[in-house]
Model the fold of this input.
Amino acid sequence: ATLDGRGGVLLPGFVDLHTHVREPGREDTETIATGSAAAARGGYTAIFAMANTAPVADNAALTDAVWRIGREVGLCDVHPVGAVTVGLEGKQLAEMGMMADGAAKVKLFSDDGKCVHDPVLMKRALEYSRGLGVLISQHSEDPRLTVGAVAHDGPTAARLGLAGWPRAAEESIVARDALLARDAGARVHVAHASCEGTVELIRFARSQGIDITAEVTPHHLLLDDSRLETYDGVNRVNPPLREERDKLALRAALAEGVIDCVATDHAPHASQEKCCEFSQAKPGMLGLETALSVIALTMVRPGLLDWRGVARVMSERPAQIVGLDDQGRPIEVGEPGTLTIVDPDAEWTVVPDELASKSRNTPYAAMTLPGRVLGTVLRGTVTHR
Ligand code: DOR
Ligand code: ZN
Ligand code: ZN
Done:
């Protein structure tokens, strides 16, 4: 296939609801510029920059700065996610309305990196989010995870002597946040669903009329805890890689629409923070530049999604989730001239040093993957080819 579209698949530009760009605070691992370049290479035309930066993106001055820098870079739209609570302590609600009213028009809110443990605070945050946008249910960023549990709580971790993080930790918080959203009359979006049980809870919540959406990462669709055998720190991630049956349940849920979309949870880390022993490594994996290929491998090749379905889970659904206006009406998806051209037949081998990201922590090094992004266009400007 060629960039003129012959033999290629033309898709609306991808939208990533979950990207860590590390600016401000850890510009040695990623910046808005390098993250945007990685996004463009991955076929993305919009990314949502997570709020767990240093300082935390909990105010309009900071969220507007992220939006403005993204515009200056011009490789993709960088929409800041607003932190729900103030500072790292996170005991006080942030001025969510101010962030929503700013130039960045923040629509997604989250407490990535600290999680709202207090159900009263979570309910108030949900109430505040009504009419502003969507509150993300984190569920795996429990600080205890980084000092204690490091792997999926299953037979593999037990055999390898790694402290485990149970499925129930995720499932119970997803259930709690769904019920709080119901009581608050608010919308909730489940970040990085990783368990079979989470899928069933989302299905149940929706059947009860709860306004709930969900994402899954490419790595939870492709990898499982059999990767832990080597103790390689690159495989440490929150939530942890689960078991084969979780993986298959997540694929089926994405095909069926119970899980709405793919989100990368692109989480750059410095080599010295990842190349150490498993339990010392920082959790997180790169995702932007390999996402399309991992979806081609796990969903298109087995016949779970056709390319129309790929457009739905990579672009249309994520855009709709954040694009609902104040009255909950869907706005138009996609802008003229904002698209991605994919060669469905090409295969490529992942070479970490060739990535546009500033970091190298891809779990797919040396793997040959199907599906190559040939070009990306943002409002008529070619951002990658
Ligand atoms: O593994 C993870 N790392 N998961 C997240 O959601 C956060 C991320 C990070 O910020 O490094
Ligand atoms: Zn998270
Ligand atoms: Zn994340």
About this structure: The pocket of DOR (ligand 1) is lined by residues 20, 52, 112, 141, 237-238, 265, 267, 283-284 (CB under 6 Å).
